[in-house]
Amino acid sequence: MSLIPLQLPPGIYRNGTDFESSNRWRDVSLVRWHDGSLRPVGGWTSRKTSAFADAPRAMIAWLDNSSDEYLAGGSYNKLIYINPSHTVYDITPSGLTSGDLHGSLNLGYGGGFYGHDAYSTAPTSSGVYAEATTWSLDTWGENLLACSSTDGKIYEWALNPAVIAAQVTNAPISNKGIVVTEERFVFALGAGGNPRKVQWCDKEANTTWTPAATNEAGDFELQTVGQIMCGLRMRGRTLILTDNDAHMATYSGPPFVYGFERVGTACGVASRKAALAIDEGAFWMGKKGFYYFDGSTAKEIPCDALDYVFDDINISQISKVYAVHNSQHSEIWWFYPSGSNIENNRYVTFDYKESHWSVGVIERTAGVDLGVFNNPIWCDADGDLYNHETGYIHGAVKPYAESGPISLGNGDQVMKVTNLIPDEQTQGQVNVSFKTRFHPNDTETTHGPFTLTNPTDVRFTGRQVRIKVQGVGDTNWRSGVMRIEARNGGRR
User: Fold this and answer.
1) Is residue 394 part of a domain?
2) 261 and 370 share one domain
3) Which helix (H) or strand (E) holds 252?
4) Entry pTM
5) Same domain membership, residue 406 and residue 306
6) Bond before 449 cis per omega within 30 degrees
């Protein structure tokens, strides 16, 4: 008899074939790793039902000058404020142009780019993706600034729930988004309907947009083949992401005010909400990969879940991809729609401190990190708000992790397993099952689940095995290195 440790490194590996994920975690949901141990992510509780009539595509939390808490979000046709007592106020600007709840792919006449196909021929394999409407939300002092990607106007809300948001005087229209820089300029992105143009107001004067010798208002057209998607406020600079590349805006003062330089190519962002900036840098999901800006250049992040995500993402709804920071666990979460789903139903996370990946199933369309509020607040497609990372109740599902194939013995011998020696923080909080097979792509046989004792009697035979660990109760369980007791069963 010999003891075989089932020692798997943190994070998942879901690229290539099934056997390529040998000795790695492969299929997981609602789990994370910390200091090498497997554990569930925090659970969630209802905060406010029907806060939004439709799925929100952006949210922001901030404090006013009296340190009162504010939470706001935008759907395809509404701008909503929710106070700390969970009362909902409609602050939608008068005359807001209603947008699109869902994205679409236009394959009909007029659905392609001009000159791409023969005249009067409808494209059959490619067309123009119409985005779902998103919002850019930022603060101007204690006030809220907002811009819908469909409506294009810049609005300001001065915190009075009885007064709706109003259009900023003299600001450009037909914009795709906004960002407020550290130097207190408002950047209008895709300003005036020009998808490559950045236009900014005078410093600390968001109603002064016409350049003059007495102010610092101005504009700049990026030299790019793409369109501007979003802007991120970073330490001392502002990152502008297009659907093709990345540019950095640096304040230089009069007469040019801002200088722009390209800091990355072939690294376009997947959606207007798929990027965020934190102290460690900027992170975003592209159309075929994940990227990181470290203050110098944009770089692709090696991703062990790349095939899993991009082979399954619903391209027609990719404009709904939403990134949130879960700072207490050093994680970036991207919510995205998979398969034929039209709303975000899955997530992929990157632990940027320990540099590993995880995936899972959850329906969330927007959210904010903790800071202003005690917990992260995320919202689903029904417009319901949830406090996250609180307790360990995960709706109707249980967190689990299943490995890829683990070869027993030297890999060419059949092994007979008799016992499992568990490694839990508190015994009995997880159960374990095994799936055995004799060859890759062979039929699997399932054994268990087993309620764990020390040791646990398990009896199965195979050349390779998977292990699945799943929480039993709504507890903060921990699972370490399980070991199996096995002996040589000969060749087969």
Assistant:
1) no
2) yes
3) strand 245-253
4) 0.94
5) no
6) yes
